[in-house]
Amino acid sequence: MVQHIFNMNLKWSEGRNGTGNIAATNLNTKISIPREMNGPGIGTNPDEMLLGAAATCYLITLAALLENAKIAVSDLSMQADGFVDVTNGVYTYEKIVHKPSIVVHNLSEREQKRIYRLAEKAEQTCMISKALKGNVQIDCEVQIIQA
């Protein structure tokens, strides 16, 4: 068995409305509770980082699947939205929506169907999506554009 270990160092000052810092090999940034949740809104926050982890994993997985399927993509980009519900003061991360935009040349109907299947497969096989399964709903709204 091969196991990968990722490390992060964190610092925090003061109470709930304080600020902190996270540092990992390729990440170093300030953190706090977001303004939307009555925090100071300095740096990033767990909600953005969860969305970023899910979106990044999905996009990399999708790019790999498209490459393995030999689909010539001329541009791949994505927007992602995270939805947090607040009920009786309890915050619940409910849903993430991935909105990939895939630009290809000479798009046939068959290839378009393959791309939709691969976009769905990317969500099902992404490591972060699998970790969130059963807790956070993940949807995909794929846009395919013929160049």
Chain-wise SSE layout:
Elements: E1 9-13, E2 19-24, E3 27-31, H1 46-68, E4 73-87, E5 90-104, H2 109-125, H3 127-132, E6 137-140, E7 143-146
Parallel strand pairs: 5-6, 5-7
Antiparallel strand pairs: 1-2, 2-3, 4-5
Helix pairs in contact: 1-2
Walkthrough of the structure:
The chain has 147 residues and is α/β, with parallel strands linked by helices. The chain has two domains: 1-44, Single Sheet (N-terminal domain of TfIIb), CATH 2.20.25; 46-146, K homology (KH) domain (GMP Synthetase, Chain A, domain 3, 2-Layer Sandwich). The protein has three helices and seven strands. Strands 4, 5, 6 and 7 form a four-stranded mixed beta sheet that branches. Strand 2 and strand 3 (27-31) form a beta hairpin. Helix 1 packs across helix 2. The longest helix has 23 residues, at 46-68. The protein is elongated. It starts with 8 loop residues before the first strand and ends with a strand.
List keywords for this structure.
147 residues, N-terminal domain of TfIIb, GMP Synthetase, Chain A, domain 3, 3 helices, 31% helix
Strand tally: 7
Q: According to CATH, what is the topology of the largest domain?
A: GMP Synthetase, Chain A, domain 3
Strand content: 35-45%
* Uncertain residue ranges: none
CATH architect. name of the largest domain: 2-Layer Sandwich
* Largest sheet report: 4 strands, mixed
Mean pLDDT across every amino acid position: 96
User: What is the CATH domain class of the largest domain?
Assistant: Alpha Beta
Task: Give the proportion of residues in helices.
Answer: 25-40%
Shape: elongated
CA-CA gap between termini? 43 Å
Number of helices: 3
Report the order of strands and helices.
EEEHEEHHEE
Report the structural category: alpha/beta
The Rg value, from CA coordinates, equals 18 Å
Structural domain tally? 2
The name of the CATH superfamily of the largest domain reads: K homology (KH) domain
